[in-house]
Specification:
Layout: H1 17-67, H2 73-119, H3 135-142, H4 150-154, H5 157-179, H6 184-215
Helix pairs in contact: 1-2, 2-3, 2-5, 5-6
């Protein structure tokens, strides 16, 4: 195979603005379709997991009634809770991955808006979403009418799944410690600490991966600095 260097951009024929706009619009629609497909897939995964949690708890109640909560019930309960928690952790991993993928789609579409603004400098004032592909720009696109705060994070599907998994882990730890004969107060303490530890660890892992994404991203259209000199969100 030839190892010749590809021709430089200077030797390429000039492309008209209309052709550039068509190419950018095609890429924009491709990103929108990919984003929609990814979000639909993860919402289906979340729904399946919640159905499994609901069915598992109902099954435990029925199994308890059928066995009169005899010595075989703890084994059934722990096995079922373990399976549900495993599915929950896998779902949580996928939700975090999709959240990061969604951020990359937003950054890519912000960059395309920056290219649109280059083709037509006057069009920028009509954009509600940002045309800057950096952190402030992504925050503007996610929330047009003001600064993002912790309510958007705490109300997200990712934190919701983390909370459900933390509760499941707490139940599993309580069941295990009760089964080995620990005092009730100690079982409750282990369950609470285990659930809180899982929640804090999961949120820390998600935030670490979020920051790692920014360390590997170089914006093409950074947000302009406000008069104070600090970078801010701009739409």
């Amino acid at each position: 195979m030839s190892h010749e260097e590809p021709a430089s951009d200077r030797s390429a024929p000039e492309v008209s603005p209309s052709v550039r706009a068509q190419l950018l619009a095609t890429e924009h629609w491709s990103l929108l379709a990919s984003r929609s497909t990814t979000q639909g897939e993860v919402l289906t995964r979340i729904s399946m997991f919640l159905y499994l949690v609901s069915a598992g708890l109902v099954s435990l109640a029925l199994a308890g009634q059928a066995t009169d909560f005899d010595e075989g019930f703890p084994g059934i309960a722990l096995t079922l809770l373990g399976i549900i928690l495993l599915v929950g952790v896998l779902t949580q991993v996928r939700v975090i991955n999709v959240a990061l993928e969604d951020l990359t789609y937003v950054l890519a579409m912000n960059r395309l808006r920056g290219a649109y603004a280059e083709l037509d400098p006057g069009i920028g004032r009509y954009f509600m979403a940002s045309r800057f592909d950096d952190m402030p720009g992504s925050q503007t696109t996610y929330y047009f009418l003001g600064a993002r705060n912790w309510s958007q994070v705490l109300g997200s599907s990712m934190v919701f799944i983390m909370a459900v998994n933390s509760a499941l882990l707490g139940l599993l730890l309580a069941g295990v410690t009760l089964a080995v004969g620990w005092p009730t107060w100690l079982c409750v303490l282990v369950a609470v600490l285990g659930g809180l530890g899982f929640m804090i660890g999961s949120m820390n892992l998600g935030y670490t991966r979020y920051l790692d994404l920014w360390r590997h991203h170089t914006p093409l259209y950074p947000s302009p600095a406000p008069p104070g000199g600090r970078s801010g969100a701009a739409g």
